[in-house]
Write a structure and sequence with these properties.
TIM Barrel; globular; 13 helices; 2 domains; binds zinc ion; Urease, subunit C, domain 1; alpha/beta; 18 strands; 8-stranded mixed beta sheet
Length: 431
């Protein structure tokens, strides 16, 4: 067993403090936080990790990740996705169930969790499907999946188009207090679309996906949640109006939470300039007005969670023309540096809100232990160097797929260490 470690000289941010403050953290040999205080003198036999100039953040948590295993191990595996998560500063992720076969039974939930324990450096939870085979015809075995450890259900990739079936899913899940997460779109409105519908899609000659496809679906799901009770979570909100519908439902007592992805905050349809398919995802990049409204929603608490919707695809698939290429971009490794460089460093997003939305809230919503610097808790934090930078290339990224709009870029800020229990996940040289 390793010795106790003192993380000394750094600044910490958490969900309750907007500004970084001096904090030393002593982690015992058992991996638990023994002490956290502004100044801790190193005792004999304690290994000191110099954190001068570094920011300590509670480990991030991503409740929306596509790991592609089983079925598309050429795009990502649970192991490579777990390593990408660690590299990005995530100490917990939730796998989406749209694999091949889809995760729609207790047996498959158990299978994914077993693989995760064997292969991923960070804990991986999984969601289960709402409907069998994600086919939208009959409910999956929700009770069995929850018993085997599924932390939520979703048919992500598609909505549950049948409103009656979705109502039954909500009613059923309510009995187990299981979260129902929704990918909102009306297939009849978005089918064939490749990007946000509007002046820009007309100019580029690309088929559009109207904002109302998402907004109508959000409104329907929230009305059904009001009727059925239970907890509902709207995935990857991308439009100002969609967010307003959620705001109204929250004010009305519907038990709804929602998430926004970094790309829907940072990028817009205007960034699609040369048919680069690394800007194609679903929901699509919307307008700069939507970016601003979503940021406002994150700041005022209407948006509870940041989630990447990490969606790996091979170069071969993404090399198709814009209209034919699959939806989705990777996000685990780019999330923190991109948010830091564009929003935190510029004073638009305080650290405490980032920690709330990308660490505390997703864990709280899923009933998992929250990562914090409290004495007695398992060590679960990351070291972030605001003066370093991160380059995104095939050589530096852990994900098997590189379909990110940040490919080839260097962004300010770098995750230099991940501390999980007694383990240092990023090797010893970096901090
Ligand atoms: Zn989705
Ligand atoms: Zn997704």
């Amino acid at each position: 067993m390793s010795a106790a470690r003192l993380f000394h000289g750094g600044l910490a941010v958490d969900a309750d403090h907007a500004a970084p403050r001096r904090l030393d953290v002593l982690v015992g040999a058992d991996g638990k936080i023994e002490r956290a205080a502004p100044e801790i003198k190193p005792a004999a036999g304690v290994e000191v990790v110099d954190c001068t100039g570094k920011i300590l953040l509670p480990g991030l948590f991503d409740m929306h990740v596509h790991l592609r295993e089983p079925g598309r191990e050429d795009e990502e595996t649970i192991g490579s996705g777990g390593r990408a998560a660690a590299r990005g500063g995530f100490t917990g992720i939730v796998a989406m169930p749209n694999t091949d076969p889809p995760i729609d039974s207790g047996g498959l939930v158990r299978y994914v969790r077993t693989l995760a324990r064997e292969q991923s450096p960070v804990p991986v939870w999984t969601s289960g499907c709402i409907t069998k085979g994600r086919a939208g015809q009959q409910l999956a075995d929700i009770a069995d999946m929850q018993q085997q450890g599924a932390v939520m259900i979703t048919d992500d990739g598609d909505p549950v188009a049948d409103a009656y079936l979705f109502r039954r899913a909500l009613e059923y899940a309510r009995h187990f207090d299981l979260l129902v997460a929704c990918h909102c779109e009306v297939p009849e409105l978005s089918r064939g679309g490749a990007m946000n519908e509007g002046a820009r899609s007309y100019r580029l000659g690309l088929p559009g996906i109207p904002a109302c496809s998402e907004e109508i679906s959000i409104a329907r799901d929230l009305q059904l949640a009001r009727l059925a009770g239970g907890r509902i979570h709207i995935q990857h909100v991308s439009t100002a109006r969609g967010l307003d519908i959620i705001r109204r439902a929250k004010a009305d007592g519907v038990r709804v939470t929602c998430e926004v992805s970094p790309h829907h905050l940072l990028l817009s349809e205007d960034d699609i300039t040369d048919y680069d398919t690394n800007f194609k995802m679903n929901p699509p990049l919307r307008t700069v007005e939507d970016n601003a409204a979503l940021l406002e929603g994150l700041l005022d608490g209407s948006i509870d969670v940041l989630a990447t919707d990490h969606a790996p695809h091979t170069e071969f698939e993404k090399n198709l023309d814009f209209a034919s290429a699959p939806f989705g971009i990777t996000g685990l490794e780019t999330a923190l540096p991109s948010l830091f460089s564009r929003l935190v460093r510029t004073g638009k997003l305080p650290w405490d809100i980032l920690v709330r939305a990308f660490s505390r809230e997703p864990r709280r919503i899923l009933g998992l232990e929250v990562a914090d610097f409290r004495e007695g808790l398992p060590a679960d934090f990351i070291l972030f160097d605001p003066e370093a930078s991160t380059h995104f290339s095939a050589d530096t990224m852990e994900s098997k797929s590189r379909n990110t709009p940040f490919l080839g870029q260097t962004l300010p800020g770098a995750v230099v260490q991940v501390v999980l229990g007694a383990e240092l996940l990023l090797g010893r040289k970096q901090p």
